[in-house]
Design a protein that fits this description.
The structure holds 2 protein chains of 2 kinds. Chain A has 12 helices and 4 strands. Chain A is of the alpha+beta class. In chain A, α1 packs across α10, α2 crosses α10 and α8 runs parallel beside α12. Chain B has a domain of 150 residues: Rossmann fold (3-Layer(aba) Sandwich). Chain B is built from 8 helices and 10 strands. In chain B, α6 links the parallel β7 and β8. Chain B is globular. Chain B starts with 9 loop residues before the first strand and ends with a helix. At the A-B interface, α9 of A face α2 and α3 of B. The complex binds adenosine-5'-diphosphate and magnesium ion (MG). The site of magnesium ion (MG) has 4 residues of chain B, from α1.
Chain lengths: 306, 246
């Protein structure tokens, strides 16, 4: 795989200058190790970015949202109180809009948790009536308190929450996952860096004799460094490209799977153009790192020679 | 001694070399090599021939003394200027030092590529040279698949391909049969005839007689003796010398 990429790369980058030592390749499994590390790093980074996007999208949607739940076991009383609360809320000046969430929708919402039997009118577990209100401006504690006071008399069983607080546990979970992803990205980057450094060094270690010969035949430090830098860069690019392609397939596949869930919140997790550019930086930085390592290592070895 | 750098290609003044903290392997070397001459460097194994050649092809700095090459002070010369000097010297290493993953062709082409010669320009000279040393049918062979003698011929082809001003060869006929040895000496002589200064280290005294006009430097336990007097009294037969004296 890397040799194919290398060949086409070389024909592209052949700028008339002849390569004095064309076969100074990363040995054996190293391009594959780099490919795997790049793939894992890109996937972890993609997960982190998707989680961030999800959190941001959800936050924007929930901004200004207030949920009123009527927690009453008796269905008649519950419906009556819900209607009362609806009337009161409609008259409040700060409430921009309000609607009673239809029974079927509530059933759908809780179905994943309680199963189909959980919902129905005759179910053993009473399900609260749900009102979805949107207010002007931010949902502050004062704003919630105001609404709570307003509906308290009409619907004593009502519980008023900011939607964001209702979703707080979900948010917390997303934030934790984000940290996890960030930590993974850091760890994998360290491992990738180590893999690249080791690969470049071992490639040069096995070519130490060649470096010395070219040196004694009058090759300049810059000339020798350039040869190794370029050929190791080509190998790292091969590994990076394969790794990135692998990761892209996984990311696109998972993205479709999540989109298939139809859960509105996850849609916001789709990766944008800037996210993909950020992901593309992983293999690019790996290549640059490999080349820089090769350069430093070669120059260091050459300094020890006369 | 002779401070004028005209008419000399290499000048050693009181040069000594020790590896690490060991005793000196070369001591009190003072001599001048003249352009266009053919030198044999003889001496028993361990006498210091390879060490002296390393000084000549700029792979090693002496521990003391002064070395002037091509008119430049080789001791104080900056690293950046050494490659240009090395390109004027062809080297046949005692252990060949072929690049293992390069074909015979690519090994011979190496000095030309280093010097920036284009592929089109180097193709024919490299083929001709390999043909001349009898390796026309082994051009694409890797060194590991070549016999010792074949490797040696590749090493020699690589050393002379760039028509260096000075050729330094360390036991260049050690692995070839007598016929090939003579043939290779003819190659060195031919190069010498074109003006290249040749220094061949050998412990094979029979070789010396094969090049009638050669000058002999003898190393004995790191010290140089001058059996023919050639090092003290500049020979007069060289065309390059004659030109410069005129
Ligand atoms: N790199 C080295 N480090 C330490 N000692 C060396 C090294 N190279 C050669 N020597 C010593 O220097 C002496 C001269 O060696 P060398 O120049 O190879 O002699 P020759 O080529 O005449 O056989 C020997 O005693 C050898 O052991
Ligand atoms: Mg020797």
């Amino acid at each position: 795989m890397p040799s194919l990429v290398a060949r086409s790369w070389r024909s592209l980058s052949a700028t008339g200058e002849t390569e004095i030592v064309p076969q100074a390749r990363l040995s054996g499994p190293m391009p594959w190790v780099i490919a795997i590390m790049v793939a894992m790093t890109v996937i972890a980074l993609a997960a982190g970015l998707a989680l961030r996007n999800t959190a941001q999208a959800a936050a924007a949607e929930l901004e200004g949202g207030v949920t009123v739940q009527v927690m009453e076991a008796d269905p008649d009383a519950r419906n009556a109180q819900a209607q009362n609360a609806l009337t009161v809320l409609r008259e409040l000046p700060q409430v921009a809009s309000v609607r009673l969430v239809p029974r079927e929708e509530v059933d759908q919402l809780i179905e994943p948790w309680l199963g189909e039997a959980g919902g129905g009118e005759s179910a053993s577990i009473p399900v609260p009536a749900l009102l979805d209100a949107r207010i002007d401006g931010k949902v502050t504690a004062d704003a919630i308190e105001g609404i709570r006071a307003a509906v308290a008399e009409a619907a004593p069983a009502a519980r008023v929450d900011a939607q964001s607080s209702w979703l707080k546990p979900v948010f917390d979970a997303i934030v934790s996952l984000q940290w996890l992803a960030a930590a993974l990205v850091v760890l994998l980057s360290v491992a990738l860096t180590a893999a690249v450094l080791l690969a470049a060094r071992s490639a040069l270690g096995t070519n130490r004799d060649t470096i010395e010969i070219v040196h004694l035949l009058g090759g300049t430090d810059a000339q020798i460094a350039r040869v190794f830098q370029r050929s190791i860069g080509v190998d790292a690019a091969g590994g990076g490209l394969v790794g990135f392609a692998l990761a892209a397939v996984v990311i696109l596949f998972l993205g479709r799977r999540f989109a298939g869930l139809g859960a509105g919140m996850v849609d916001g997790g789709a990766l944008g153009v800037t996210d993909w550019l950020l992901l593309a930086l992983v293999p690019i930085v790996s290549v640059l790192l490999a080349m820089a390592t090769a350069r430093v290592t070669v120059l260091h070895a050459l300094r020890k020679m006369l | 001694m002779s401070q004028n750098s005209d008419g000399e290609i290499v000048h050693f003044d009181n040069v000594g070399l020790r590896y690490g903290t060991d005793r000196e392997v070369l001591s009190d070397l003072s001599f001048t090599l003249y352009p266009g001459s053919f030198y044999f460097l003889t001496g028993a194994s361990g006498a210091g021939k390879t060490s002296l050649l390393k000084l000549l092809y700029l792979a090693q700095r002496p521990s003391r003394g002064m070395i002037r090459m091509f008119g430049s002070d080789a001791i104080t010369l900056s690293r950046e200027r050494l490659p240009a000097l090395r390109r004027r010297i062809g080297v046949v290493f005692q252990d060949f030092r072929l690049v293992p993953h390069l074909s015979a062709f690519d090994n011979v082409a190496l000095p030309l590529r280093v010097a920036g010669v284009t592929e089109r320009e180097l193709e024919k000279p490299v083929r001709d040279m390999l043909d001349w040393v009898g390796l026309a049918d082994r051009m694409q062979a890797r060194p590991a698949t070549l016999s010792g003698g074949e490797q040696q011929r590749v090493a020699i082809a690589r050393a002379v391909i760039g028509r260096p001003e000075m050729l330094v060869a360390d036991e260049p006929t050690g692995n070839v049969d007598p016929d090939m040895a003579v043939k290779l000496l003819r190659l060195f002589e031919a190069l010498n005839g074109l003006g290249t200064t040749v220094v061949v280290a050998t412990h094979d005294v029979h070789l010396l007689k094969k090049v009638p006009d050669s000058l002999i430097m003898r190393l004995d336990k790191g010290r140089l003796s001058d059996p023919t007097g050639a090092l003290r009294y500049p020979p007069r037969r060289m065309p390059a010398m004659a030109g410069q004296r005129a």
